[in-house]
Design goal:
The structure is a homohexamer of 254-residue chains. The first copy, chain A, has 254 residues and is α/β, with parallel strands linked by helices. Chain A has one domain (4-245): 3-Layer(aba) Sandwich (Rossmann fold), CATH 3.40.50. Chain A is 38% helix and 8% strand. In chain A, the strands form two sheets. The first copy, chain A, has a four-stranded parallel sheet with strand order 2-1-3-4. Chain A starts with 8 loop residues before the first helix and ends in a 12-residue tail after the last helix. Chains in contact: A-B, A-D, B-C, C-E, D-F, E-F. Chains A, B, C, D, E, F: Its cofactor is Zn(2+).
Chain lengths: 254, 254, 254, 254, 254, 254
């Protein structure tokens, strides 16, 4: 109901008056191995964000589809911007929203590589007392369930991501390619040598671009994960709506 | 067929090998008066861009939905980033695409406020010999037809834009609000005093946010405009495909 | 009488107390074909600006002689700075003036390529409520007269510019070269292909560097244009002087 | 033997000819609760780095004592610079070293808040093929040992850090304050609400500034941790010395 | 003869082919006490630069009239830009000139506050091997003569500057105000407390804005200083013309 | 007693409450010829700064060991960062200190190349009314004594610097190399041609990297210089402590 971009400015006035929190989906367009589409991360973020359409107390912003993916650049189709540019784009978008009176948001994130930039956005907006906008990575909210469902360390285009994509965009999973994804995958993210993390690019440690056990994916696991994460997101939105704005701002010097 | 974000990296390798040109839709999320949705500009850009899906020689990139709209900031729902941030986001996205071998693109633009940034992107990419990526404003390609169809100077949320939206997203036009849009509209863009242009913000000269004659809009006019502009876009793509890359780069010193 | 640079600081205190508005001439040093000097644009801007010396309510700032002319770089003698640098130079100059209490100015501009940067300067200064400083392009104020005088689309080193130079710096026109300028000129600015603007550099579409009908120039036409534009400038200054400062600042959110 | 700053330029020429790798200690000056000195992180980094003095194949650079510690700013004595400034300072320092022919380094890091900036430095230097300079966080190399020694999740001024400080700067531990540190400590870093990480500043979740079980610290545990981590660092240096430079640079497009 | 801005592009081609060196006058518009005009520094620079018009081996660029004068901001009429903006403006102007084949220049400077920025410009252009462009402060070339002529430490709007202005712009000196300038002047620049330099702004140590003995000025001293400095400038130009370009670039690592 | 980095946050609260002024040592790691260590400048700065430990009214910050030394880059072991990065690092460090209530500092500087950046830091902090932090170059405070002690113009790794190093770090002087330093030294800094300063890099005018008469150095002269400069520093600290904060901020417009 309340996709901001589908409202007129007059309707937006009403919606923003009523809403306590905005939802901004951000992701990436980057390689996810041979079985998942490049848009995996922004598609998942958008799917979670759109579940907030049903809420009167939230508005859903348009999806930012390109993110911080330089480490996937050796694989075809990967698009990326620098961390600084991504951070500025997200921060300025939210600063413009705040001019209309909305001072809370959730950054619904589909891509781990965006995390540092999003934390930085959230810190800046909070320090300025412009907006309280914590990032929410969908996979962080359902780590325990994923551990139950799959035996994988994973990290990219793995059973967890593949399942969720299977659920939200069934038309875009290539089940016959999951085998190829897995046979060229590494078990875990990066490469650690005596305590130093050395996997700068995915190509340094994964041949197919995947990390984990993609063949363990299933649409049913995807449905479970999606629903569980969605519930967490809505619980977070409830919590945010309740929280007084003054309690959101930074604490003073001790 | 070839929305890049829906391809896997393996498929993207094939698609990018075959394709000669990319299409990047860019727009804005900003007030368009009481009758049109905030997403007008990125929705139109996306609609034009997606007509290139049918072509084997093109790939369509995901839509960038927020642009340079500071001058609409007094109207609810308007989102914006600075010109520098928008320019960097678009340029870096295209630079990452060029790493996969694609060196031609059309920037399908739905928002006049983006024009200067897009020209700057195109200049930089050309001067670096990274990519030849001219901006294409859909309305610039069908100016004569619009003059035939409507008697308006227009410029924003006018008969021309309203008609095209009516055609591409019939569900999002609010026909009953066109009257209100027009009664609060100005005739032309900005305000000129003795040769100086003084309309810094839309609110300086338009009460409803619209500029032009929205009530003159019709779905039929929208269909005509859309088809004519689409044909121009495809003619441009044909021309670009044919043009040797060497002919695209800057000329040397005289 | 009141060229700021010729005043002492003590006299400037008086002049700035009395003056309501500053006049800043900006232009470029760039190719203007074989018949006009490289300094055309800053010379014209300076000539217009200096007509404000006679006014007690204005101070005239020193001329900034280099501008945004990268698109002329293939022609000998063209100097340029980036848009960002030009914008910062103009903006900071005006911000320093504002510290002395002057909060209105006209940016008397002689070069179209500077326009975007000047609009951006004016927006920033207005949004900060530092200064109200609209750009004024001399040619925009006399478009109708030029249409009467010449049959040309024009755009650069054309009949209009040549005439004005002939009037303000008769010693620097090369009448015998107007023919060469015209024979190598294009009719209009740039090159449009199916709605995309493709003339990135002047050299892409003009052999001589001129655009228009330089041979149509005459000192008499120059005198008419100069006087008409000067009158518009002074009307603008009158208007600015009258306008209350509060009416100059941005309007609030609707 | 080879602290670079103690060499003359003539001696440095010899040392840099002989050395294959540089060691740059970086840390912070920030609150570490009531029992540890503000310089904890740069002191630990320096202590580890100086163990490389004994090696002919390494040079040790001077310590950078201030880092990315904005999240500790509410506690007295915390110094910090922005992530961008820290990153530039470290990167430019290493770029200047590379001019003398040294193209490998280890960034011996004592502060978790520096990690993102250091990864970014390492990526840039590698992508430019200027230097291969992986960050090494001392605590990452001895996680298993710490798990054996202490029952804590920890994260800041905890048993692990306190022990190492006790070992390297016995004069600067305040054992009588460990109780106070612990009584005001949180168990783990930050605060997670439905998958969103919400502890922006340490003050948001820890009263004393510590996170973990400081009272579990002991000089003996410190000695074990220090020696184990030092061995890992030297193994990393050995590995780096052996690794051909060509194997260090980024891989090409697939 | 060869003021670049007065040439056409065709003539500039010839002039730049023939010329070995460019001359760029830079100064400021800032308070010079009650007896000298605000434009003192750019007027002097321009006067010296224009003496190079007579040379076939030099081209004179247009004058940049605003500089790094923040420390004079409390006095009416002072204009200034930041050091970074000034540096960028000068450097980019010269980089654009270099595209036409001119790789030597003298930065004829009239304002001490510009010095650091100009040294930085010169270093960058030299390190890039774009241009060899040493700054030349007119007063530095005639220090001995000034010591002979006047008994002053001086530093700003002093006998030396006043004399030169008297010579180059006799119409703009206010001889009756020299007394007032001197009575409110300090003897030397700034204020030193136990080795620390504490005069941040001129207003901190000079009431009139002048530093030195303005009343010692005379048109005759001005003529002597001007001629002596002009001779030094031309000797420098001769030296530069003779010097092979390869001898101008930075030396390699020892 | 009060090295900030050795205090806990609790102790720092007390120390900062009691202290009126901070002392920040900054220097460089750069060639100082064959007789002095690369760390000369930061070692001297640190030695002077640490004499303030004894004072209850001061806190000593950790030493920043790398500075603006690009002009020494051709000599082995020289490290450097850009002026902008150095300035940001110092300024942000002090801004973070000011959050704890300390608004006065002395920038104890050991390297002439840092001076412009430090002046800029001091100006910015003062203009913001964040902190009054004048730079103090140790050699500037004892110029007369140095003139008495040595017959040299000097400027780098000269008798003055060598003597002070001999005093503060006797273990790091190489007395047998002073001869070599001097035989390859220039007499004075840089190279002046007709008033233009042309020595961009030390290598342009000094073979050994030294400038002056290193053989004139002695530990006794070093002791005299050190004590005299230390006394000046403490007199400056006394003066600063006494000075009311309001007297430190910039004066208003005249």
């Amino acid at each position: 109901m309340t996709l901001l971009a589908e409202q007129t400015t007059t309707e937006a006035a009403t919606a923003l008056e009523r809403a306590d929190v905005a939802v901004l989906p951000v992701g990436s367009t980057e390689q996810h191995g041979p079985a998942l589409p490049l848009g995996m991360d922004h598609m998942a973020a958008e799917a979670f964000a759109k579940t907030a359409q049903e809420r009167d107390d939230a508005v859903v912003l348009p999806t930012i589809p390109v993110g911080v993916s330089v480490h996937h650049r050796q694989f075809d189709g990967t698009l990326y911007v620098s961390e600084g540019t991504f951070e500025a784009f997200v921060r300025e978008t939210l600063e413009s929203l705040a001019e209309h009176g909305c001072q809370k948001a959730v950054l619904v994130n589909g891509h781990g590589g965006n995390s540092n930039a999003l934390r930085s956005v959230a810190r800046t907006l909070r320090d300025e007392e412009t907006m309280f906008a914590p990032p929410w990575n969908w996979w962080d909210s359902v780590g325990d369930l994923a551990d139950e469902l799959f035996e994988e360390e994973g990290g990219h285009a793995d059973a967890m991501e593949s399942s969720v994509l299977w659920h939200v965009r069934e038309d875009l999973i290539r089940p016959t390619e999951l085998e190829a994804a897995e046979s060229g995958a590494s078990d875990g993210w990066g490469e650690s040598i005596h305590g130093a993390s050395l996997g700068f690019d995915t190509i340094d440690f994964s041949e197919s671009g995947a990390v984990g056990k993609p063949t363990h994916a299933s649409p049913d696991a995807g449905a479970q994960l999606f629903e569980a994460a969605r519930d967490e997101l809505h619980a977070l939105l409830d919590w945010l709506v309740e929280r007084p704005l003054e309690a959101c701002w930074p604490r003073g010097h001790v």
